[in-house]
Every structure is written in C-alpha cells, then in structure tokens.
What we know:
Blueprint: H1 2-10, E1 23-26, E2 33-34, H2 36-49, H3 57-64, H4 68-78, H5 85-101, E3 108-109, H6 113-122, E4 126-130, H7 135-144, E5 153-155, H8 167-176, E6 184-188, H9 191-200, E7 203-207, H10 215-220, E8 223-225, H11 233-242
Parallel strand pairs: 1-4, 1-6, 4-5, 6-7, 7-8
Antiparallel strand pairs: 2-3
Helix pairs in contact: 2-3, 2-4, 2-5, 4-5, 8-9
Bound molecules: 2-phosphoglycolic acid (PGA) and magnesium ion.
Residues 27-30, 65-67, 131-133 line the site of 2-phosphoglycolic acid.
Amino acid sequence: MPRLMRGMSALQSTDFKHGIRPIAVFDLDGTLVDTAPDLTASLNHCLHLHGMAPVCIETVRPFAGHGSRAMLRAAYGWANTELPEDMLERHVENFLTYYEANIAVGSTAFPGAVEALDRLSQAGFTLAVCTNKSERLAKVLLDSLGLSTRFAAICGYDSFPARKPDPRHLGGTIAQAGAEHSSSVMIGDTVTDMEAARNLGIASVLMSFGYDANEQARAMATKILPTYDDLTAKLLLELMDSAGSGS
Length: 247
Ligand SMILES: O=C(O)COP(=O)(O)O
Ligand SMILES: [Mg+2]
C-alpha cells in the first residue's frame, strides 16, 4: 500500500491526456491468477462423487476460463457420458461449494503479474478486475492472495445486468472504479475479454500464456503479449491512443 501511494502521489492528473487518469482492467482466471489447479480439483471432486475418473489439469486448462458448466460439460464429453441439465445444476452447486472452501490451495498469481500491477500503480494507473466469476468468489480469491486492496473495483458476472462480452460489464467496472472508458484498456486471456473490449470500443491485450488464446482471440486483440514483462504503462498508453480512445 505505501508503495502504491508513493506511485500515485508522484503523478498529477494533469500528467495524463485531458487530465484523465488511465485504467487497466484485468480479467482474473487465466490472466492475473492461475486458478486451474483449484478449478481442476473442484471438477475432480464432482467427478469422484459420480464414480468417474479424474481428469488432468492440462486437459482442463482451455476450459478453465469459461466457467464451471463448461468444464463439467467437457469432462462428461471426454467420458462419453450423458449429462442431463438437472444433474449439471447439482454438479455446479457441489463444484462451487468445494471451490469456495479450497479457492487458494494451489492458485497463484502468474509470474510477473504482481510486478506489473506495481509498475502500473506507480505510473498512476487505476486498476480493476472484470471477471466472469461471481463478484463474491473473485473477492474471496483476491483477498486470500492478498491482492484485493490494489483494485478500485472488482466486478463479477453478477455485478451488472449482463456479463462479458457484453460491454455493460466492462463499462460498469470502469465506472465503478471512478474511471472513464476513453482512457482504458482490457487485459485478458480469452476471446470473451477481447470481444468485451471491442464491444466497448477500447484497446485490449491478450496474455497468450492464459487458458484459451485461440485464433479468434488473437485476431481480435489489439496486442498479444507472451509474458507480463512487456506490460508497461508506456505500452498501454500507446494502445489507448491507437484505439482512438484518449484522443
Ligand atoms: O469463471 C469464469 O467464467 C471465467 O473467469 P474470468 O472471466 O476471470 O476468466
Ligand atoms: Mg480468463
């Protein structure tokens, strides 16, 4: 916190274009935090309850950023087993109960993520999280990892009437953080994040180490980065300008 305040006090709002403080909005699963270990454990807990064999984390990873239903449907598909809708809903309940109780057992911030947050804060950026997790679970996870106080807003799929890729989720997060979408950028790991940014008319960065940086996501991203090392304030300000925002 003292570090953040030092960074903020070093810059005046007049240092930014039109005096607007920029905001970097981060996706959570697969972007800031590697949640796949605990999501896989929760999935395997559900499969075990139904006498099914466990699945390995590498198989689950591409589905990990698309929610518990997507993971459960995929796992039943791999096992060639029917999954009726009512059973899926019971599984989701079990999944979420287990997940909440074990949310930060194996989950950690991706390499370089915390340092990138430090850099951006020191450069005067506001930070926020826009995730398709529930707002409550996102806050529980970020609290457990000691990261939540860094963010001016943490918004989940249930914070607004619509979720990513609907621009109301991303736009609502930016507004709740006290920022403006004309000086904002979205950093994520899936096509859902890139599409949300495009729908709001802002720049996006695709972190290609994430869970599902597929062709569609790559084609939609303003910039693709393989690691956090290159995620700098300078780059994000340039992307905001080139997206026509902030001008
Ligand atoms: O839980 C999900 O559906 C995905 O979460 P994310 O938006 O943080 O990647
Ligand atoms: Mg994600």
